[in-house]
Amino acid sequence: MSRIGLTKDIILQSAMEIVDNIGAENLTLKVLADKLGVRSPSLYNHFNSLSDLLTALMLYGWKQLEYRVMQAAIGKSKDDAIKSMCAAYLNFTLEHLGLFNIMQSYNQHISQETIAATSGLIETIRQVLSAYNLSEKYEVHTIRVFRSFLQGYVYLVQHDSFGNSVSIRDSFNVGVGILLKGLKENENIKLGK
Amino acid sequence: MSRIGLTKDIILQSAMEIVDNIGAENLTLKVLADKLGVRSPSLYNHFNSLSDLLTALMLYGWKQLEYRVMQAAIGKSKDDAIKSMCAAYLNFTLEHLGLFNIMQSYNQHISQETIAATSGLIETIRQVLSAYNLSEKYEVHTIRVFRSFLQGYVYLVQHDSFGNSVSIRDSFNVGVGILLKGLKENENIKLGK
DNA sequence: ATATTTTATCTAATCAGATTAGTTTTGTCA
DNA sequence: TGACAAAACTAATCTGATTAGATAAAATAT
């Protein structure tokens, strides 16, 4: 019998497909091993535990999201850049519902690694925001508010919490619009509280 | 040996304490049964399964949150009411981190019951918003944007995703302020898109 | 009051999934 | 080629949810 030649990346890719297809709650070592054509204990050659694997999967997700959002900002500035980044965020997360779920639930304990995985993203956001000349504190506030909105919006969409026929994209754009307006309020206030 | 006399409510109360104290991921039937002075199979007299229990716990959480937020709106209107409600939301969720976690993760499948559990809350919000004379669509957009912000903000706080010294309450208030401003933009526009 | 029914609880057993121990096989490199 | 490290396997263990069946307390009916 010839060796399959697993690597962390192959495993993570497979795990991502599973969670996106059948949901995060149905990812078990057995299911994953079956898909890879291997017995479940073999996975322990690549990860120390299921929780280890999920953590890696979470970071894998953040890195991909980071990439997509950074791409979206290329060649754009100010409102255009922000709108484009927000749209990229929404698109990615809607394509990867299961993965996004894992990204949510598995950064409980972790800090160092999550921060590392998203530092490029945060840096990009900061660069885009620098065009608005926000005070230091307001920049922090702004990033937090945007992140909260994005995070919450996707979460609620994912959980079908908007039991209504009004377009998901429309509300999203209205939300981004409101935030952008708020951003202008604080533009050039160098000494904001 | 005398019977303990468990009820769903007693069990849920206990479960809430557990998740708030030691985290949602550590709630097992064994831990819960131990706390209640009973063997774990006994819990099956009150719930059909762990997942059943978690669903009930989730609804229990939403009902409590609903109560707190509705309380906060009493005797207030417009911006005051909204600020107060948002603050109540933040306070409740920060007091009940574990419970909030369950509230998040266990409304995947459910719909009818979750909707029932939060209908009073939504109704209250609608009443407060009615003072702004929003168009029908904008009312929906607005509610969605507020919910998203709240949901996301608490989530990020809970997961220590704001790795920064700037005050959690300040950013929250800035966020609410921005949303309220956005709300005014659309006030009295009866034929909004 | 007593008999009957219901049901909360128990113990013992089963099942599924993660994990560990120990073995075999394969690939690599001196 | 031979030796070593790594990848995979089988078999066994452990934990936690769940089921089956028994017991006894409480509730209800006679």
Uncertain residue segments of chain A: none
Number of helices of chain A: 8
Structural class of chain A: mainly alpha
Biggest interface:
A-B, 44 and 44 residues
What share of the residues of chain A lie within helices?
A: 55-70%
Regarding quaternary structure, how should these chains be classified?
A: homodimer
Shape of chain A: elongated
The H-and-E topology of chain A, N to C, reads as HHHHHHHH
Strand tally of chain A: 0
> What is the average of the pLDDT values of chain A?
90
Explain the overall architecture.
The structure is a homodimer of 193-residue chains. The first copy, chain A, is mainly alpha-helical. Helices cover 69% and strands 0% of the residues of chain A. Chain A is built from 8 helices and no strands. The longest helix of chain A has 24 residues, at 50-73. Chain A is elongated. Chain A starts with 7 loop residues before the first helix and ends in an 8-residue tail after the last helix. The relative contact order of chain A is 0.11. The mean pLDDT of chain A is 90. Chain A binds chain B through residues 23, 25, 104-105, 107-108, 111, 114-115, 137-138, 140-142, 144-145, 147-153, 155-156, 159-164, 166, 170-171, 174-175, 177-179, 181-183, 185, 193, and chain B through 23, 25, 104-105, 107-108, 111, 114-115, 137-138, 140-142, 144-145, 147-153, 155-156, 159-164, 166, 170-171, 174-175, 177-179, 181-183, 185, 193. Chain A binds a DNA duplex (30 and 30 nucleotides) through residues 1-6, 28-30, 38-42, 44-46, 49-50.
